[in-house]
Amino acid sequence: MGIHLEGPFLDPQYRGSMAEHLLRKGEPDLFKKYYDAAEGTLKFITVSPEVEGVPKLIKEMRKLGIVVAIGHSGADYDTSMAAINNGATCVTHTFNGMKLMHQHFPAIAGAALESDVFCEAICDGRHLHPAVVRLLIKTKGLDRVVAVTDSITATGLPDGEYYLGVNKVRVTDGDAKLVSDGTRAGSTLTMIKALQNLVKFTGRSLEELIPLLTINPASVMKIHDHKGTITVGKDADIVILDDNLNIDTTIVGGNIVYQRQ
Fold first, then answer.
1. Fewer CB under 10 Å: which end of the chain, C or N?
2. Dihedral (C-alpha) 78, 84, 87, 91: value to the nearest 10 degrees?
3. Over 90: is that where the pLDDT of 165 sits?
4. Which amino acids are annotated catalytic?
């Protein structure tokens, strides 16, 4: 599916659990180095619109076919909308790691809500209050919200200490935070739990919510011609759930790779 490069062209003030000393301005030569090293697998990148050099870099990334998202940002409304007009089509984990909306200063969050970009949402009940998830869906519509996990390597493992890049993380009751200052550091959310939470948070039907985990992300990544729906000619990637929304069977490329015993 390719690489999501979340950084290093991010605003240090909104870095979240990122290591500040690794963040950079929008340097074309450095981006080219990453792009070449990825050998065609770099498909998605998150940048901060207000970082020096980034606005021009967004146009270059789009020419290469890379999907550009904005996030980890304190950008004002105009700067954010300029990035969207330059080709950014998604907002990374909306409302988390960004300047929030004020009635006089809409900021990046306001641009995310008003524009037609896709908005990611971490639906673990920690990063976003259930009411905010409902509000985001009501504002953007079911066809413009993408459920994401933002999960780290500790996902599915016991509580304890792990590393997120160069930073040490402590997981307590499934909640991941930096050991150094307690900043939340990603999540241990699984996608099936995100779906279960969405049903619980919104009271909407499974049929309404499935696009947030299927065709919407496929559309963001521009792979909806072969993924995202069960359609003749598309990849046979299918998850079969039981009545309690637990995974019964997983099919990848038409082959069963998991079946509950």
1. C
2. 140
3. no
4. 150
Tell me how far apart the alpha carbons of residues 146 and 124 are, in angstroms, rounded to a whole number.
13
**Domain residue spans of the chain:** 3-153+187-229, 154-186
Cα 19 to Cα 226: distance, rounded to the nearest angstrom = 37
Calculate the alpha carbon distances from 233 to 8, 32, 196 in Å: 38, 35, 29
Tokens at 116, concatenated: 């037609």
pTM above 0.85, yes or no: yes
Whole-number mean pLDDT of the chain?
96
- pLDDT single digits (tens) 98-135: 999 999 999 999 999 999 999 999 999 999 999 999 99
CATH 3.20.20.140 fits 3-153+187-229, yes or no: yes
Nearest-5° Cα angle at 211, 207 to 215: 140
